[in-house]
From TrEMBL, chains A, B:
UniProt KW Transcription keyword: yes
GO MF: DNA-binding transcription factor activity; transcription cis-regulatory region binding
Protein name listed in UniProt: Ribose operon repressor
Source organism, top-level taxon: Bacteria
Amino acid sequence: MRKRRPTIIDVAERAGVSKSTAARALAGAESILDETRERVLAAAKAVGYERNHLAVGMRSGRSGMLGLVIPDITNPFWADVARGALDRAAEADVSLLVFSSDWDPAKEESHLRALRRARVDGAIVNPVSDALDDLDKFGLPFVLIGSSAERFADVSSVGSDITQAVELGLDHLVSKGHHAPTLIVGPKSRLARTRFLNAVQRHSIKRDVDPAQLIVEDGEYTLEGGRLAMLRLLDRPRLGHICVFAANDMMAIGAMMAVRERGLRCPEDVSILGFDGIPSGAFTFPGLTTIAKPGRDIGARAVESLFDEIEGRPEHGRVYMPCRLIDRASLADLSREPRKLAG
Amino acid sequence: MRKRRPTIIDVAERAGVSKSTAARALAGAESILDETRERVLAAAKAVGYERNHLAVGMRSGRSGMLGLVIPDITNPFWADVARGALDRAAEADVSLLVFSSDWDPAKEESHLRALRRARVDGAIVNPVSDALDDLDKFGLPFVLIGSSAERFADVSSVGSDITQAVELGLDHLVSKGHHAPTLIVGPKSRLARTRFLNAVQRHSIKRDVDPAQLIVEDGEYTLEGGRLAMLRLLDRPRLGHICVFAANDMMAIGAMMAVRERGLRCPEDVSILGFDGIPSGAFTFPGLTTIAKPGRDIGARAVESLFDEIEGRPEHGRVYMPCRLIDRASLADLSREPRKLAG
DNA sequence: GTGAAAGCGCTAACAG
DNA sequence: CTGTTAGCGCTTTCAC
């Protein structure tokens, strides 16, 4: 039997004013006698008053809560996004309701319903289902995040700048003397594959290397997928050093394992560049050179955009956050040695 | 300008019944004509009614929300805990408000206040400040998690079973022929250090090895801390193979790096056993053998306990969740070779 | 079995 | 500058 929490009435009574005066004082309104305000504030502190946000939300239509629906908080990238969102939200003194969709449309839908029932003021979601199409009639301000958000035109969304990232990676590669990297990309069905491939091709043309000559292997976006792809690559006839640009860090690490499995060495025999910036990349041997997605920034920017959306000044476009290179040890420096054929 | 959300009144009108009847039908009450219930349910679906949890919470005193305050969602262990809690909560159809304390007492306090204002039904927190002492007067059902929770007697808490974990590790070590591991532990000030050390000592005595002969190095609970400790260890005069049991995976990985740095090899020259079970351990070379804390189970169990607490059937004790061994490749098998001096 | 009415704690007119 | 009043949407007596 917990004792009743003090309400604004308790505060008002103790301060000898009316409910509304107390409310105004608590809200820090201007039109109030300094002396009255202080009396109310003192009373509030004395009784241990804490504003009931349920009641506030009910009356004002603002719950002070935001929803965040991401696939898996256990995945380092999404954890990073969540952290960014959490921090930015805390700054603005709003709370975040977090949910894991597990890439399951059914869960996503059920979580979205939960958010609506909770009367959150808006939601940030990495969409898995296409059913989010009629987002407008969803009755909730939205900001989409991640690459899957690009399917939805005219909804605010934020994600990494793949084009810039690929350019960054490719530039770094040529600075190390690698002019036409072999690509390990995701499965054919995935949108991300196309986007990655396109960016590489576009950039290759700019650098006068024929995209058609780029070797491409694909596999699942997993350790094993990368390992298998690398094994296949190693089975091909090849000449000298080989340089691999993997579309994600897990695949890159898998590739690294395949190299060791075949008795070869990284970076001496094969150079590997990853993409994601997962923490584990710091602990592989050699350390994985990779280009990191700005998860935290994405999360923070998403709540920022969501605030805009809620305030009624929507941008309704995609924001691309820049990636950065993490230079570790998985790339050989060939720039001082004789150039290879390509490039 | 978003259109007004349908309320229970809209449902009632459409079904041709009163507010209260509609409410009863929606709540699935017994005392209602089947026919009426169906009419109401149909009406609810027709108008797209979704219960307003703010209003429910206000009236019933149950917000259907729980709070989770952990140091850093970006830390794999805490992400795992969060995941467990998220899943269990979703199962019970309650939402989770998540906050990062960053080991900062000020943030912790402010988050706790936010939770109270949000009128969560209870909170799960990894306590950083000692000020949580008067938890009773906090006006909120609590379940504490993690090792720092052990400071608070007579509050429900759940954490890993360090004793069982150490026993598991030590047993595995002897099965591989290592009888008196060198310990790399945390800084003197930390409670966790003592607990770890105690467990090792207790178990050593049981196996007839004198705890006093165990070599102990300490350092920060970080990569660098582990590296430095290992370097110091390597500087000591030693005979043959050395086996290290690190109190956390980061330190273990740091130690591994130090070994390589000195031109030695793991596991041929030094065996390393970690403690935590972070994902990165799978990607080191060699893969880190470690004992994994059941983060997810801890999170799930914590919301379970919290439900009990809320329902008014508190256990008020600590629950210890068992750890498990992940056997990878950082331990040499000396069991077939001549025994070492110790043990 | 169903309806009418009260009230959870708060804010926002509207008076004074 | 401050008080009074009317709800926000829902559940819950208490009647009928």
